[in-house]
Every structure is written in structure tokens, then in C-alpha cells.
Fold:
Amino acid sequence: MFKKMKAVLILFAVVALFLSTYRPAEAVNPIKPSQSRVTHTLKDVNGVAYKVYFAGVREKKGYASNDQWPFVWAGTNEGDLVYKGNYTLYTHKVGTSHIKKSSFYFKDYELNAMRKMVHVFPSKYKGQPDILAVAETDSSSFETAQWYYIHNGALTKIVDATYTKRAKRIAMNQLQIAGYLNDEGAWYFSDFIFNPKKNEFGGIDAEVKNPGQVIKNWPKHWQ
Structure:
């Protein structure tokens, strides 16, 4: 009887020691923050902050010139620092340890570091989320950007926007872009209305008085 009780006590001590030293294995993060080429902080509609990482593989870099890659063109000026690689967006809720890989992938993407092609539109209003833009130069007049925000804890795409002037805030969850048509020599304006709770997005043509003055005073609302 004594031997059985002793064996039970020893077994109990072993189990207690195991439980006191056991730590559940943490999920291995897909990247380290230091691997990110561009890092921004995005806040959702409730003000909860997330780090967003734009990290790539098979990356190369160079300074734009007329003789070799990266070449001078509408998307680069001579001497611009340019990176090229296969990039993915990752998110990291501030205050936690886990980094999540998103499904948003950019193959053979050229990042002109001098033009901040991956930028953020910080919110000015309570209840409006920050917007992340991943842009590419189309021509001397136009740029196209994919817009994203944090929705229910996940990075979510909003829309593809093409413009000459990057968006400016005009009201709660409303942005305006401007595009210049060379063949017409005229500016056109569009207002984007966004419902972040439902992830619904719509655009309408905007009538602007004195467009030349509006363009002259166009604010920089991106970072």
C-alpha cells in the first residue's frame, strides 16, 4: 500500500513539473518585421492599430539611368532608387506577436522608393479607417493604385483607382481624385464614397468650378 501511494505521489510530482514548465508552441511568423521593404500602421474604424508589411523575395535594386535597369521613363527620374521583386502584404495587430500573411501578392513589382508607391491615407475622422495604397505608374499622366483597409481584423481590398492626382479627403469616408486627359487638355474629377462596415464602394463624376485653381491647391493627404 505504501509503495503504491509513493508511486502515485511521484507520478503527481512529474505531472506537476511538466505542467509548470510547459509552454504552448507559438506559431512561426512568415516573416520578420526587418524583412519588410515598406512598413505602415493602419487603424481600423475603431482605432485599433495594425502594422502592415510589404515584404518581397527575389528582390533586386538599382538607380534609374538611361543605360541599364532600372531605366528612366515616366515612372522614374534619373537617380531614383528602385526595387523589384515578388511582394506580399502582411499584417500584425499591435500588441500581439503573430504576423499574418495576406492573399495580396505583387509579382515583378517595381517599387520606386523616391515616389512612395506604397503609401497611406490616414483617417481624419472618427469611424473612418486608414487606407493603404499600392500604386504603379501607368504613364506620364496616370497612376493606378489598389486600395486596402482593415476590416474585421483582416486586410481587405476596396478598389483599383486610376488618377493623375492622388486622392484627397473631402468628407467622412469620401475621397476625390483628379485625372488629366492629354488629348483633351482637361481635368476630370471623381468622388469615391466608401462604407467601411459593409465594404461597399461607389464613384460618381464630380463637377468642380475653376479646376485649374483646385489642382493648384490640391493637398497632399497621403503619407
User: Anything to note?
Assistant: The chain has two helices and twelve strands. Residues 1-26 have pLDDT under 50 and may be disordered. The chain has one domain: 26-216. The radius of gyration is 25 Å.
